[in-house]
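sanity check this record:
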Amino acid sequence: MSATKKYTELYKQGKLEDTTLIKMAAFKEELNGLFTKEANIYKTVGALALAAPIFGLSSYGLGKGLDYLENKQLDKEKEPAYQAMVGLHPDLLDEDQILVRKYWDSLWHFSPHIATEPLAAGAYIKQAMEYEQTGGPTYNMVKDLIHAQEKAVNPVGGLSASIQDPMASVFGNMNVTELTTI
């Protein structure tokens, strides 16, 4: 017995309300109309084809706008952070100011979080200046700055780590030889 006949029988027996039958008929009519009218299908497909890139561009634009606002806010904090660092490390004023600013800008670029900590920022600038003869801060110094910035922006640990990446808590401490024996 088809579903239509089944529901018709239930209606005849008084076991199905009138409103349910009307809703079913309207739904069937709407469903049939959707697939019999080719124009509706083309409109739907066309709208979806246009919606995807528009959504992508709008979210890209929103992301860029938020990045711009964040950079503007950071720019307002940059000079006061520099002054606080120099206030805590006045001996940096005796150094070549172009060099100090160059390393400060590099520090601010890679880790604004560290740059806003006057003690850490001054220590980094002094250490970087010691390496000036060999090209400036080492790769490891910059890598550590980037790592510190990532940890400051996205602190991961404990329960939040298992929520963000559940498989890392399972496989995170395994090495390659353990993975090949599984």
